[in-house]
Design a protein that fits this description.
Layout lengths: L5 E2 L4 E3 L14 E4 L4 E4 L17 E3 L18 E5 L4 H4 L1 H8 L3 H13 L10 E3 L4 E3 L4 E6 L8 E6 L3 E3 L19 H12 L5 E3 L6 E2 L2 H25 L4 E2 H7 L12 H18 L3 E5 L2 E4 L4
Parallel strand pairs: 4-5, 5-6, 6-7, 11-12
Antiparallel strand pairs: 1-2, 2-3, 3-4, 8-9, 9-10, 10-11, 12-13, 14-16, 15-16
Helix pairs in contact: 6-7
């Protein structure tokens, strides 16, 4: 599908995506103040856009992932801003690849994709921001809120006076939270989801999938459904461990991606994601190792 730009308020525009926000694209935000204009998470939707990418004085990336920085190169004269905790990812290709943590053939293949498909352009001049950093564009304030888990630096953004809360990759999708990188954290993501649940706004916007929600009850319902995927994965893992299994068997079974999904990096994502579930189930006494390298669920008391 293709979608038009959509005004979310007097100063904020959701820029349309040819794919309706579906990966590898996403929906950037354009924020206009009296003095400056900022584009947030310029995506592939801006590459080849009819009429060209809209001009901006500043680029703000919610975090450093390939799909969120894919349009940065369209703004060579703008100042780029990324979370301080993710800033190494925009400094060099090696820095970005460290965030993912892939190795072997998957790492080499994805590095090529990042450059050739997502136009990765390193910058030594990008500036890092921390939690609570506020950009005044002239009568419009863009405030960052650290929301880690997806990456170490992942941040959401509150824009006033339009009262728009941009959620980045807390995308409220049925796929659920992604915490499969070396710089991801399942437990940080859970704390972030609890924090975000308490935030009120007139309009909620996501980079992928949902797009916008203007009803708080609808937002909370979608957020709770999104968060519930974590518990669903954990319960599915416990059921799979009714008999002893190795980590390789867990990875091959697929708990994050569907078995039929052709995802080149599925194995490292499954390994990283489900290892985090295993670690906390072992710590909680719900899973044990009857022999090194094999895991089994303990019977419920």
């Amino acid at each position: 599908m293709s979608e038009p730009d959509r005004a979310l308020g007097p100063h904020v525009t959701l820029l349309g995506s040819r794919l309706g926000g579906k990966y590898p694209e996403g929906r950037p935000l354009l924020v206009r103040g009296r003095e400056e204009t900022m584009v947030i998470d310029p995506s592939l939707a801006l590459v080849g856009r009819a009429g060209g990418a809209p001009p901006a004085d500043r680029v703000l990336n919610s975090h450093c992932h390939e799909d969120h920085v894919a349009g940065n190169h369209l703004y060579p004269a703008a100042q780029w801003h990324l979370p301080e905790a993710d800033i190494d990812g925009i400094r060099s290709l090696d820095g970005l690849m460290a965030i993912y943590g892939f190795d072997g053939p998957a790492a080499a293949a994805f590095a090529r994709v990042v450059v050739e498909r997502f136009h990765f352009t390193p910058s030594a001049d990008a500036l890092g921001f921390v939690d609570g950093a506020t950009f005044d564009l002239g009568g419009v304030q863009v405030r960052t809120i650290h929301a880690p888990g997806h990456t170490r630096g992942h941040s959401i953004v509150h824009i006033q006076p339009d009262d728009v809360l941009y959620l980045g990759d807390i995308d409220l999708s049925s796929f659920g939270p992604y915490y499969g990188d070396a710089w991801s954290s399942l437990e940080d993501f859970e704390r972030t989801l609890e924090m975000v649940r308490g935030l009120a706004a007139r309009c909620y916007a996501t980079f992928h999938h949902v797009g916008t929600l203007e009803d708080r009850e609808a937002f909370v319902a979608r957020l709770d459904r999104f968060a519930a995927v974590i518990e669903r994965r954990e319960q599915a893992l416990l059921a799979f461990l009714a008999e002893p299994r190795s980590l390789a068997e867990i990875v091959a079974h697929r708990f994050v991606y569907r078995p039929q999904d052709a995802v080149a990096y599925a194995d490292p994502v499954e390994r990283r994601s489900m290892s985090q579930h295993l670690d906390r189930l072992i710590a909680a006494g719900r899973v044990e190792q009857p022999e090194p390298g094999r895991f089994v669920a303990r019977p419920a008391a």
